[in-house]
Amino acid sequence: TRIDIESKLSKQPLLISRIISSAMVLGPAVFLVFIGFIYSKSQNYDIPIISLRYFTVYGPRQRPDMAFYKFIQALAKDTEIEIYGDGTQTRDFTFISDAVEGNLLAMENNSLGEGFNIGGGSRVILNDVLHTLETITSRDAKTVYREVQKGDVRHTFAETSKARDILGYKPQID
Question: Is residue 136 within 8 Å of 60, Cβ to Cβ?
């Protein structure tokens, strides 16, 4: 049932095995379908495929729909910052150089048909992110809290031990 799936996904850190057993939640379900597809193709046709699941990648040239970009733009322009929920939700942020390193390590590895979490390795409270940006910019945010968006996961925390043990992945930016 949906309740069982949500209870599995609420346990932190998020294990790939827990995602795979929780196919009804949109984000992880997409990952599950993809992992199943690539594993099947990798095994049946000897195609060298490895899958990486990224957790909230940020850094230079990031997408404009991501929180850091939106928050910094709003602070610079003195406009409202919308936070969906109460701001106590957490995210495992991954700096772009760590995501790139995960890609490079996967390219050099021979773990065909496997899936790996690529994350920063720590959970950060969204309100704390906003406070840090206020401090850096010396500006006060005009924060507006909105209803939680459907399908949004309250907490993310990448369980990266498989990537560490098999790929040698170790995030460098905290």
Answer: no
Rg (Cα) of the chain, in Å, rounded?
A: 18
Nearest to 49 by CA among 40, 57, 59: 40
> How many Å apart are CA 71 and CA 149, to the nearest integer?
17
Backbone angles phi, psi at 82, to 5 degrees: -90, 130
Residues in CB range of 94: below 8 A, 6 or more apart: 54, 55, 56, 57, 58, 118, 119, 120, 158, 171
Is beta strand 90-91 parallel, antiparallel or unpaired with respect to 124-125?
antiparallel
Q: Name the one residue in this structure whose structure tokens are 């920063």.
A: 120
The C-alpha torsion from 11 through 26 and 41 to 110, rounded to 10°, is -40
- Closest among 96, 63, 80, 89 to 139, alpha carbons compared: 80
Q: pTM, whole model, 2 decimals?
A: 0.75
Helices (H), the chain: 2-10, 16-20, 26-45, 67-77, 96-107, 126-137, 161-162
pLDDT, tens digit, 9 for 90 and up, residues 117-161: 999 988 999 999 999 999 999 999 999 999 998 878 899 899 999
Is the distance from CB of 16 to CB of 50 less than 8 angstroms? no
Structure tokens at 96: 């772009």
